[in-house]
Design brief:
alpha/beta, single chain, globular, 6-stranded mixed β-sheet, 4-stranded antiparallel β-sheet
Amino acid sequence: MSLLLDKVSYNYPGSTHGLHEVSLDVRTGELVAVIGPSGSGKSTLLKLVSGLETGHTGRIALDGEDMSRTPVHQRHIGMVFQSYALFPHLSVLDNVAYGLKLRKVATAERRQRAQELLDIVGLGEFSQRAVAQLSGGQQQRVALARALAIDPRALLLDEPLSALDASVRGHLRDQIRAIQQRFNATTLLVTHDQEEALAMADRVAMLKDGRLLQIATPRDIYENPARWRSSSGSRRSCPRRWPRRAGWTWALPNSSPTPAGAPSAPRCRCWCAPSTSAPTRRPTR
């Protein structure tokens, strides 16, 4: 299932904040990450696609079908929230099977489907536990299994790793990406973490002030970032300024790091403020 947004605009009541003629497409089985500063419209975009916010102009389509007037429960979209949003009174298995229960799937069938998904995310032995007994990373995997249980037409991930410790984040990031590819799920990911976006996404979309600045592959985003300055002047989002590690320059995942002190790259051309040249990096994507 492909996801298409065509000149989608939305303003919150009494405010100029929202989205302004955003157009992007997510191909079948593709993962597109949406990044940008706070207030850029990332979460608004996800809410409009899911149907949690309505009243926009433009077209939102799933596999060619206009979803603009389709209510939330009829869009068949799976969503993983930043806060997990699990039901504390249900077991792990019943949380995963909840969407199937609402669709009136037979008890035996939905429990079997839920158990299969828990096995896939590595939580098969925890099926009868209460969610309060799980770690944050385990709860996030339960939320992912629940979203996939209904065989969604599209999968939406809203900051799925932001509440987790750094030690857990990297492993779970790789696991989510592997599961997404296994199910060939058309996926839209919202994140503040640039490394997460580059490591997981097939393409990256950059938003600022509700406008789509750039959408490209991680390599193109890295090598040819769009020219704009963040309203706060922050430089943390500049691909050429991501942090060094113990004497090595930061590199894209699975690349060979370049020693600090290598020949300087051109002056920064991305959306941070212009500054002195940065060491060369060697991206792989």
